[in-house]
Amino acid sequence: MSDIATRPDLIVAKPVRRRANLLPYLLSLPALIVCIGVLIPFFTAVWYSLEAYNMAFPSGRHFIGIGNYIDLFTSGEFWHTVALSMIYMAASVILELLLGLGVALLLRERTKLNNVISVALLMPLMVAPIIASLIWKLMTNPTFGVYAWVVDSFGLTGFHWASSPGTAMFTVVLIDIWVNTPFIMILLLAGLRSLPTQPFEAAKLDGVPARFVFFRITLPMLMPYIITATLFRMLSAIQEFSIVYGMTQGGPGNSLMLFQLRSYIDFYQNTNVGRSAAILMVLWAITFVLSKLFVNQWHAMRARSNPGA
Amino acid sequence: MRNPVLKALRVIARIVIVLFFMFPIFWIVLMSFQTNAQILTLPPSLIFKPSLANYVTLITGHLQTSVGTLDVAFLQNLGNSLILSVGAVIVSLVLGVPAAYAFARFRFRLGEDMAFTLLSLKFAPALLVLLPLSLEFQMVGLDNTYIGLIWIYQLITLPLILWIVRGYFEDASPDIEYAYRVDGHSWLKGFLKIAIPLARPGIAAAGLLAFIFAWNNFIYALVLASGDKQPVTVGALAFVTASGIQYGQIAAAVVLSIIPTLAIALYAQRWLVEGLSLGAVKG
Amino acid sequence: MNDKIKDTAKEWLAGGMSRRGFGKRMAGLGVGVAAANFALGGAATEALAADFDWQAHKGKTLRLLLNKHPYANAMIADLAHFKALTGIDVQYDIFPEDVYFDKVTAALSSHSSRYDVLMTGAYQTWQYGPAKWLVDMKPYLQDATKTAPNYDWNGIIANLRASDAWSGVPGEALGSASAKQWAVPLGFELYNVSYNKRLFDKMKLEPPKNLPDMIEIGSKITRDAGNGIYGVSVRGSRSWATIHPGYLSTYTNYGAKDFDVSGTTLTSAVNSAQSKAMNKLWVEMIQKAGPPNWATYTWYEVAQDLGAGRCGMIYDANIIGFFENSPGNKESGHIGYSAFVPNPDMKQSTSNVWIWSLGISSFSKEKDASWYFIQWASGKNFGIFGGVKQELVDPVRETTWKDPAFKERLDNGYPGFYEAFEQSLPGAKIYFTPQPLFFNVTTEWAASLQQMVAKQVSVDNGLDKLAAHIDREMKSAGI
Fold first, then answer.
1. CB contact at 8 A, A137 and B245
2. I need a surface site. Which of A13, B150, C121, C233 has the fewest CB within 10 A?
3. Are C284 and C453 in contact (CB under 8 A)?
4. Using CA atoms, how far apart are residues C407 and C422, in angstroms rounded to an integer?
């Protein structure tokens, strides 16, 4: 290593190339190996999705190729689920992003008060979603709930929160915002505070308007963080289960039958492993494409903001 | 802040935000000092005689309901959550931080594919992986063990830590590390003494978030472990009893289960805020 | 143990001595209360043990998978007696009801040998049985070397025994000759009306006589009671659990069936004329007198509204009325019970039932010992203990229902409970057609009901669509 130490330009030089190339593998392989154990069952699950497999009919289990997928793609209910999941994801992630960014900007300065508030705002994230939905179900229940009571007091007596098809999506997205905005907020806050101070000082000296600073300096520099936060939120939001299941079990009617609810009910209640697996494989494919898009974007951003690296 | 209107708006925005996010928490804390009969009244009242009964129930492990006494294992659940979440985050940090460093510092064959594979854990359909996984775990004797659970918890914690920390390593200029090595220090020392401290806010934020998500999970332990290894999330559901939902105890359980996470958040906050030399370094 | 003490205890058990006399004699023998109780347990154990080798599996260990429920608590409270009787050690894992069946499915589908005995409902056995996850207990029941002579299988209410037995052929009646006994009843619940007597008295109301009457009284409460109190609470969440209680009992009472069975083909009958008539009334009831957030209502919300005085009455499990009348709730002591015959043209109610039952896992390594446990838990002695000392208040054995101490307890603390039960019992059994897609069908059914109540679809239209959906699902499963 002493060669590299004394001559940084030697990192790509011939004599040490082999060692320098081995190092990243040594560093990253353990993490990969740990994953393999989890990825083996994944292939078993792929196989399930190609079978007619209901655990209550063990004798009827057989390979049907893409039969489950054909059934799904020709069913209106399934496309309804795809659309709902997309709406849920888009609504919750966009609103959380805007709100999270706003809060992060408000708390950007390193004052004692801001630090206290930022930790306090993390608390909703610490309430497990499955418990949060229990509490929200109580708070929005017209017979006892404090929120329902407040809304009633404003004369909105017909507002039935999660139990009416018209407001169910609004209610669960609201809870999602409450639970998950802190996640985006803390990531963006950490990002904001780690931005170099120089460009901002320069802009200040030049008297650049605040709006210009925000759109031309802050936002572009923060973009990699925004993309990371959005990616993780999107992956979770399209797979949302706990909040929706806790509030409405997918109802009223089919108004909240998201991917995970459909596959959960098919697996644990209907013991229809084949169909449940196929639904999740479609979900997996969507998340795969989304992730690819975002990761490519992330690399592009990186390349732009660190041209030298 | 030259404009007073703008300043007032910012104050109002802050108040609204704190209200929106903190009111349910405030309400949970209130409920934790109320009896179920007090909680289930309308209009809700802010004036009541606070009682510690809910907390006593959780700590002594005996729940008195209208139809007899139930045993609750809440403290055991709390302990399990700590073991599982702390264990999962430590393993993820040990595995994920060097890997993140490798992906950020080196361009190597299959590197991006490996990084993406690790991210793909985040979109593995957990529900489905669980059935074959429990069969696999039984074969190798990992079912109903903390180690097996901590392993599967990597699905939650590892991708998060890896990708967030990678971002911070990418932002930190390698020049300081090189300069440090020029002084005759080894690569390992440079990694430990320079790279890691520089990425500290990222590591702290990622570790904290990973801890929270691990803490909130319940499906893995539910499926893969027996009753004595269940986390607080399952423990809190135990207050949904046949004779009614014991909201007071659920609220107290939430308060008690937030405390460890909050303590870690406050501790990590020091690093998030004070240890931030990154900006100065880059500027 | 001293023989004299034993004899005294035996004499008491045989009924030859009053409890006071027993206490006195024991005191005379120098035995304290605790020791006397122990002797009582020991003697009971021995009485039970006559002519049967309860100790055959001594030294073995059983693991139970239990749901957090008063019925499970009753078993746990008396485990020491089972251990003393058999020498079998018992450990248990207890999970909250919200996640209990997920845990069962997870444990059984992974063929885990961890659990020997588990709690289940009858509907679940329609999946677990054909999936080969449960042991058929018929051979045990017929084997005199494995079943105690005084177990008295036939002493368990016949409809309940039959409800836990099914041949596995879709549409074939429960309890048929070829049926397998997948589970054994532990305790159950039937569906009638529990109401807030205080409120009914104040508003000068009588409990409803039938469904139209329920709509009228319920509407009146919603309109006039004030402070947001509404008429009738029933479940409404998007779940099979919404269909099986009051809803199916009423459905059946109006002459509707879930399926038309011809040979091995099942055709959905949810859009029959009877069903449409009944559903129109049911939907009207919810719209006019039901809980405002009905579509999110589970058992828990129904119970909580009754106990907190937020609704006039509930049409759900009779044991909810028991729990909410017990101390600790706002309306404790104010709950009344009424057998309910929904159809004005009918004399007898047709209550569907939910049966908490015990089954043996196919993957258990101690099946014989497991059967010992089930015999004990569904036996006479434990039944009386659960009914008198614990909250096993819809016991499955006639010996418990006829037990004077049991009746006395109910009459003192829960006036009217016993009579309402007695009136409902003759018609109480499972009215669903047994078939393994029970959960598909009923979950979809609940979703349709929600759409009808929300006026997204008319009742006629909704039921036609539901029938088509069910037929499609059945066809794709080959039924």
1. no
2. A13
3. no
4. 11
Distance, in Å, from the CA atom of B223 to the CA atom of C30, rounded to the nearest integer, reads 52
Q: Which of B98, B130, B160 sits opposite A232 (nearest CB)?
A: B160
Task: For chain A, count helices (H), then strands (E).
Answer: 15, 2
pTM of the model: 0.90
Could you tell me the two tokens for C336? 């009344």
Can you say whether residue A131 is alpha, beta or left, with left for phi > 0 and alpha for psi between -120 and 50 degrees? alpha
pLDDT digits (tens, 9 = 90+) for A198-239: 888 899 899 889 889 999 989 998 898 899 899 999 999 999
Q: Which amino acid is at A184?
A: I
Give the pLDDT mean for A185-198: 85
Distance CA C348, CA C255 (A): 12
Contact B41, B260 (CB under 8 A): no
Return the closest-CA partner of residue B125 out of C346, A270, A280.
Answer: A280
Peptide bond into A252 cis (omega under 30): yes
Residue with tokens 């539910």: B222
> Within chain B, how many helices (H) and strands (E) appear?
15, 4
Contact A251 C446 (CB under 8 A): yes
d(CA C37, CA C464): 62
pLDDT tens-digit readout, B151-202:
999 988 999 999 889 888 887 778 888 888 888 888 888 888 888 888 887 8
**Is residue C333's pLDDT more than 70?**
yes
pLDDT in tens, C343-379: 999 999 999 999 999 999 999 999 999 999 999 999 9
Residues of C in contact with A162 (CB under 8 A): 293, 295-296
Tokens 């005191």 found at: C27
The number of residues making up chain C comes to 479
Q: In chain B, which residue's Cα lies nearest the Cα of C94?
A: B227
Tokens of C223: 């309109």
What are the start-end ranges of the E strands in C153-244?
165-166, 180-181, 184-196, 230-233
CA C417/CA C337 separation, integer angstroms: 6
The number of C-beta contacts closer than 8 angstroms across B and C is 102
